[in-house]
């Protein structure tokens, strides 16, 4: 569980989950809504952000 700070200074709680395949999801802890998704490539050492 994470505490995130928004640009306006307010905070919100989030939960993250990932897979060995490199996919990582972040969900709002209060609502369960998907807030972010990343695909991480270990071989190329890069992260790709995907709009949700």
Q: How would you describe this protein?
A:
The chain is mostly beta strands and 52 residues long. The chain has one domain. Helices cover 0% and strands 60% of the residues. It has strands at residues 2-5, 11-18, 23-28, 34-41, 46-50. The chain has a five-stranded antiparallel beta sheet, with no helix packed on it.
For this entry, give a set of tags:
about 0% helix, about 50 residues, mainly beta, five-stranded antiparallel sheet, about 60% strand
Q: What general outline do the C-alpha atoms trace?
A: elongated
Structural class: mainly beta
Mean pLDDT: 84
* Major sheet description: 5 strands, antiparallel
Task: Give the ordered list of helices and strands.
Answer: EEEEE
Number of helices: 0
In helices, the fraction of residues equals under 10%
Gyration radius over CA? 12 Å
- The largest beta-sheet arranges its strands as 1-2-3-4-5
Oligomer: single chain
The unreliable regions are none
Taken as a percent bin, the fraction of beta residues is over 45%
Domain count: 1
């Amino acid at each position: 569980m994470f505490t995130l700070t928004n640009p306006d200074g307010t905070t919100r709680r989030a939960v993250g989950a990932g897979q060995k395949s490199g996919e990582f999801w972040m969900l709002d802890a209060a609502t369960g809504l998907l807030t972010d998704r990343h695909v991480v490539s270990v071989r190329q050492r890069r992260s790709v952000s995907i709009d949700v």
